[in-house]
Amino acid sequence: MSRKHPPHDSPPNRRRLLTADDLARVLATTRGAIYARHARGGIPGGVRLGRTLRFDPEVIDKWITANTASAGDRK
Q: What total number of domains does the chain contain?
């Protein structure tokens, strides 16, 4: 009995995880700064896949929104 494997394309309900380079572009910083801040626990949603680091875009969006909103509350 052979099993059919799905095509190599991602299923439509799967989100694409952000690379450190992707997130660096979003935050206008460097990849090194992303790795350093993640190592200090400063960026949520990070997932290690072997030697690579990926970020959940939904978690990052919520984190940016929460930090933007709280930054506006300061006087």
A: 1
Q: Residue 49: enclosing H or E segment and its boundaries?
A: strand 46-49
**Residue appearing with tokens 């790795």:** 35
CB contact at 8 A, 21 and 31: yes
Q: Is residue 30 domain-resident?
A: yes
**How far apart are alpha carbons 45 and 74 in whole angstroms?**
25
Q: Phi first, then psi: what are they for 50, rounded to 5°?
A: 65, -125
Give me 6's structure tokens. Answer: 């799905």
**pLDDT tens track for 7-66:** 555 555 677 999 999 999 999 999 999 999 999 999 999 999 999 999 999 999 999 999
Predicted structure pTM score: 0.72
Is residue 2 included in any domain, yes or no?
Answer: no
